[in-house]
Amino acid sequence: MESEVFQKVLEKNKNRRPILKNSLKAFLFGGIVCLLGEVIRMILMKVFKVDSRVANTIMLFVFIFLSSIFTGLGIYDKLGQVAGAGAFIPITGFANSLTSSAIESKTEGIIQGTLTNMFKLAGAIIAIGAISSIFIGSIIYMVRCFYA
Amino acid sequence: MTIVFAFLIGGLICFIAQLLLDGLKLQNVHITVLFVFLGSLLECFNLYDRLIEISGAGALLPICSFGHSMTESAVNYALNGNYFDIFKGVFASTSSGISFAIFISFICSLIFKPKG
Questions:
Q1: Which of B18, B96, B110 to mutate to test the interface with A (most CBs of A within 10 A)?
Q2: Which residues of B touch A58 (CB under 8 A)?
Q3: Residue B62 belongs to what H/E stretch?
Q4: d(CA B31, CA B28)
Q5: Which of chain A's residues have a Cβ under 8 Å away from the Cβ of B65?
Q6: Residue A25 with chain B: CB contacts under 8 Å
Q7: Are the C-beta atoms of A144 and B52 separated by less than 8 Å?
């Protein structure tokens, strides 16, 4: 009897998983981050008259810097719980994973802790980036050499 | 106009990511790896460059642009030199972001204390 009730409650909660609501939150947060990035990029390009490549780099630096500071202050974890994918898909998630694993492993010492464990989470991004770019880049290179 | 598209495209990428995360019950790492690979794949017909032209930061800030710019610089290095320059070009354009993130996170780990 009790296990039946338990199963019912479990089933009810399962169906209520707010996939759409979470996705909309992620949409809003990710959209606002990208909107701010575009505003920064436009200000850099229009007001300070910098080259678009330099503007892109400065914009990325601003976001990496802010997200590292927010991670250190503990704000980013709370944001991540609310925004989900909106918090870890932009480049801020990369900086967050670097900084959080660097701070967490600080107690083990600077060399054996911070420097060793810094890439615990972010290593996957760099590794897959290098592997897929060598793999796909080789294919594109071969195709372009063959046709040109 | 690019500001509106930046909001829409950037939001849409995060929307799809959250949908996959909840729908397939994956971890964050799976989604990030998948999106880096997708960005690398979209380099094929210069699709991602067009997306950046339309939406600016909406396509530059999501992690897909990481895979995209890695592949783009790898191909450019290989086309300008010989094939083995592909290994040189992989990190050519993303190296500034990576080294800045390493530097800042090291400074932050010196300043802040671990929580919990």
A1: B18
A2: none
A3: none
A4: 5
A5: 91
A6: 18
A7: no
**CB-CB: which of A38, A72, A132 is closest to B111?**
A72
pLDDT tens string, chain A, 148 residues long: the values are 567 787 777 776 665 568 888 888 889 998 998 999 999 988 988 888 888 888 889 999 999 999 999 988 888 888 888 888 888 889 998 999 999 999 888 888 888 888 888 888 889 999 999 999 999 999 999 898 888 6
Burial zone of A86 (CB within 10 Å; 0-12 exposed, 13-18 middle, 19+ buried): buried
Tokens encoding B36: 């880096």
* pTM, full prediction: 0.86
With CA atoms as reference, report the closest residue to B74 among A52, A39, B66: B66
Domain boundaries, chain B: 2-111
